[in-house]
Structure formats: structure tokens, C-alpha cells
């Protein structure tokens, strides 16, 4: 059996694993980066990148239609949209990512990895020994709902987020289970590409984790694109039906039925830990890896097992995973050099933002962007809401409709959270993130003068609404 040794073995070669390995190498260590699929990971080939490539043309077309003086007869060309998406994903070819790893001093290893002992990872029979740490960055996988008949459906009828972002044929009818981020984004993308879309939600509105005004705005946007919404609806059974020799899916709910050519499962994700051999180190396969703010996994003697990204269950977003990966890579390198690790909040070795300032964008039309708290959590906090109605938004689009909610710590007069809804509000999010992370007092924000005429003028209106 072949055996190789590295200072660090990183399992999972998506953006999170790449960052962890790069930071470890940058800190003077050697690193192997292991994956059994594509280097570049879920985000690059089946999630963030292709989904936004599918959404962007439809969002641009909708923006044109909100502007007078422009010919509004244009339609999306699905083949061109798919071709542009494939250019971003390189048609699934990860050779450039593998070459990047090599050029960065990282050893790429392709195969299925399992933890088989202390600081030991076995990859298809080859043993990789980690002198310092094993870092798990395997991400997450689709969580399938317990719907009767789902397991019996032929695979070609069922989409997950992977098929929804990589398919190059527009189905005549698409049913979507789940009104969260993936469900709403893909429902709108495929509706704008020409599919008849049916979106089933167990809650009363899309995006249940967001304030009601956000979900309501997205629901209106979806309806405007012809998406048929089924709120407060549990699909009880799905089955295959034959329609004149063509396969289809029948969804039964509340005594009614809907037929579709494809069924998209968008009911959440779970950490991808089931096949890692975690039982060897006393952890539960399939469960999230509990980590401290430096990325070390709790309950493993010696502190050699670390993790970052979706696999920890903390903040399942690519940018937060990369943030955590940079920290854990630096911590492992510092420990190996014998340097002290600074565990104080907001230090280079502590993932403090996971608790206070996690930004996220839902790239629907309208966009939803949020960071920090979305609801007031109790005494000493105040929610301030207002419509985004400034000169900049009026010029941006006729009939511009948007809303902002800010959660303020009234004892310190600093922002704790901001939620924005409206066309192109994602571009306002980083300024909110900086204000929260920097704990900028509102009286100081008063002196951050927004340029006229931009949508950023809403910051001035917010401060005025608060009473400054």
C-alpha cells in the first residue's frame, strides 16, 4: 500500500478546501488536496456560479422592461444562456483548477477519502499521513424530503440543484419542491427560460428564513414571471405517469394533482460527512462537524482534526466557508511554527463573523440581501423599516419597489443587521457588512455621504428615520 506524508491533508477541493490548503502552504507547510469529483467543487460547477449565470440574463431583460424608451420585444435565447453558463463552468473540465493547485504548491489527489486513524487519511487504498492536521471541507449534499413515491421515481425525472444548474434543455413543465433560496432562484430562472413552473411551499410565502416583506416581494416577482405558487402545501405523493409514451411526474396534494416533466428537489442540504469514516475518531457519520472559532473539531484528542464550510453546519455559504478556511489554514500553520494563536474576537485566528455578520444574497428579481440580524431579538434593539424611495432608485427603474429593514442596538447606536429587498440591492450589502463588522456608530455613519443620485441614498433616509 502506497503511503505519503504531508503537513496537512485537506479533504474536499471546492473553494473552501482550496483556501484552507493555500493558507497552509502560504504559512510554510506542505499540503495535499483530495477530491473524488471536480476540483473547484459544488460552487464552481453546480451551484453559485452556474445558477447566477442562468439568472443574470433574465434579470437584465426584466430591468430593460422596467425602462421606457427601449424596445421590450426581446426574449431570452436558452441556447445562448446555456452556452454562457458552460463557459463559466468550463463544460465541467476541472483541469485548470488542478493546475492551479499544483502552481500553488498543493498536491492534488483524486479519489474517495476516508479517515482511517489519527492523522491518517486513506484514498482508494493509498495512505496519506498528516503531520499536523486533517482539514475536512467536503461541503453538503441534497436532503431529500420524505415524500411517498419519491424513491421510486426514475432518476431522469428528478432534478436536484445539480441538474437544475447544468441541464441544457428547457422542460415544458417543472415542479419545484421547496421555497427557499434554491427553489425560488431556480423557479424564476427556468420560468424565464420558458418552462411552466409550479412552486410548492410548506410555508405561507417563499424564503421563510427572511422577514415577511422579503418573501412577499419575491412571491410577487415569481408570479409576475408566471410561476404558479402553492403556499401552505405539502406534497403527499409523487408518481410516474405515462403521457402518450412520454414519462412525467404526478404530484398529489390535498386531493388535487399537478403533472410535470421534471421535479426539482430543493428542500435543503445536509453536511457531507456520511462517507468520511468519522466513527473511527468517535464522531457521528452524517452529522455536522462541531468546530470552535478556529476551526478545530470538538471532541477529538490532540486537536489535529479541523473543518470549515458547509460541513460544520455553521454558515452554509461559499464566502463564509472560504473565510473560515483562511482562518483554519492560518491557525494550523501558526501552531506548526510554534506561534501563539490569538483566540480573541475579530482576530486573524477567530471566525467571529459567523456569529455576527453573515451576508447572503438571494439572486431573484427582486434581489434579497441581508447581513446580521433579520429580526429584533429583544430589549435594547429597534427595527427601523422604510421603502427604498430615493432619487437614485427612481432613476434606476420606473416603478422601482424596494424596502430596507435595519436592526439597531439602541444602547450603542450601532447596526446589528440589515435586510434589503429590491432590484440590484445586493450592491448595497457590503457597505452594511462593513458598518456591522466595524461597529460604526450611527452618528458617524451620518458623515458617510451617499453619492447622488444612487440607491445608496437610502442610507441617509435610514438615519433620518432613526432620528438623526
UniProtKB/TrEMBL annotation:
- Per the record's keyword annotation, is Transmembrane helix included, yes or no? no
Instruction: State its cofactor.
Output: FAD
Among the Pfam families in the record, one is Pyr_redox_2
Residue ranges annotated for the Pyridine nucleotide-disulphide oxidoreductase dimerisation domain, each copy included? 358-459
Domain of life according to the entry: Bacteria
Family of the protein in this entry: Belongs to the class-I pyridine nucleotide-disulfide oxidoreductase family.
Protein name as catalogued: NAD(P)/FAD-dependent oxidoreductase
What lineage is this protein's organism placed in? Bacteria, Bacillati, Actinomycetota, Actinomycetes, Pseudonocardiales
Amino acid at each position: 500500500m502506497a503511503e505519503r506524508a504531508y503537513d496537512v491533508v485537506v479533504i474536499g477541493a471546492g473553494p473552501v478546501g482550496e483556501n484552507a490548503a493555500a493558507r497552509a502552504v502560504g504559512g510554510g507547510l506542505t499540503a495535499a488536496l483530495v477530491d473524488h469529483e471536480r476540483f473547484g467543487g459544488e460552487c464552481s460547477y453546480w451551484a453559485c456560479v452556474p445558477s447566477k449565470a442562468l439568472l443574470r440574463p433574465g434579470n437584465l431583460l426584466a430591468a430593460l422592461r422596467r425602462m421606457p424608451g427601449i424596445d421590450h420585444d426581446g426574449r431570452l435565447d436558452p441556447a445562448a444562456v446555456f452556452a454562457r453558463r458552460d463557459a463559466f463552468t468550463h463544460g465541467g473540465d476541472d483541469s485548470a483548477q488542478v493546475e492551479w493547485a499544483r502552481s500553488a504548491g498543493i498536491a492534488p489527489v483524486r479519489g474517495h477519502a476516508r479517515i482511517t486513524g489519527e492523522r491518517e487519511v486513506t484514498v482508494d487504498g493509498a495512505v496519506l499521513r498528516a503531520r499536523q492536521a486533517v482539514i475536512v471541507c467536503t461541503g453538503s449534499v441534497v436532503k431529500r424530503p420524505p415524500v411517498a413515491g419519491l424513491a421510486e421515481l426514475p432518476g431522469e425525472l428528478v432534478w436536484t440543484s445539480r441538474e437544475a444548474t447544468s441541464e441544457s434543455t428547457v422542460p415544458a413543465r417543472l415542479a419545484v419542491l421547496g421555497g427557499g433560496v434554491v427553489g425560488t432562484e431556480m423557479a424564476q430562472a427556468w420560468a424565464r427560460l420558458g418552462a411552466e413552473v409550479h412552486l410548492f411551499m410548506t410555508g405561507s410565502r417563499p424564503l421563510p428564513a427572511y422577514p415577511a416583506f422579503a418573501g412577499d416581494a419575491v412571491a410577487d416577482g415569481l408570479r409576475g414571471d408566471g410561476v404558479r405558487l402553492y403556499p401552505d402545501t405539502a406534497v403527499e405523493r409523487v408518481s410516474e405517469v405515462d403521457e402518450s409514451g412520454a414519462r412525467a411526474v404526478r404530484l398529489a396534494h390535498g386531493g388535487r394533482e399537478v403533472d410535470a416533466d421534471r421535479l426539482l428537489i430543493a428542500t435543503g442540504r445536509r453536511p457531507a460527512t456520511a462517507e468520511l469514516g468519522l466513527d473511527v475518531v468517535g464522531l457521528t457519520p452524517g452529522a455536522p462537524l462541531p468546530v470552535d472559532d478556529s476551526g478545530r473539531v470538538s471532541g477529538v484528542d490532540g486537536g489535529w482534526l479541523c473543518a470549515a464550510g458547509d460541513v460544520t453546519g455553521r454558515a452554509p455559504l461559499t464566502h463564509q466557508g472560504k473565510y473560515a478556511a483562511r482562518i483554519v489554514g492560518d491557525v494550523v500553520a501558526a501552531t506548526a511554527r510554534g506561534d501563539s494563536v490569538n483566540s480573541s474576537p475579530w482576530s486573524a485566528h477567530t471566525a467571529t463573523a459567523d456569529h455576527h455578520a453573515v451576508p447572503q444574497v438571494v439572486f431573484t428579481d427582486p434581489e434579497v440581501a441581508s447581513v446580521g440580524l433579520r429580526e429584533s431579538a429583544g430589549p435594547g434593539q429597534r427595527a427601523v423599516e422604510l421603502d427604498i424611495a430615493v432619487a437614485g432608485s427612481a432613476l434606476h427603474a420606473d416603478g422601482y419597489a424596494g424596502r430596507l429593514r435595519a436592526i439597531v442596538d439602541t444602547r450603542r447606536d450601532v447596526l446589528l443587521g440589515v435586510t434589503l429587498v429590491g432590484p440590484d440591492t445586493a450592491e448595497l450589502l457590503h457597505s452594511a457588512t462593513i458598518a456591522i463588522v466595524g461597529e460604526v456608530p450611527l452618528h458617524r455613519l451620518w458623515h458617510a455621504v451617499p453619492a447622488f443620485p444612487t440607491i445608496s441614498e437610502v442610507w441617509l433616509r435610514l438615519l433620518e428615520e432613526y432620528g438623526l
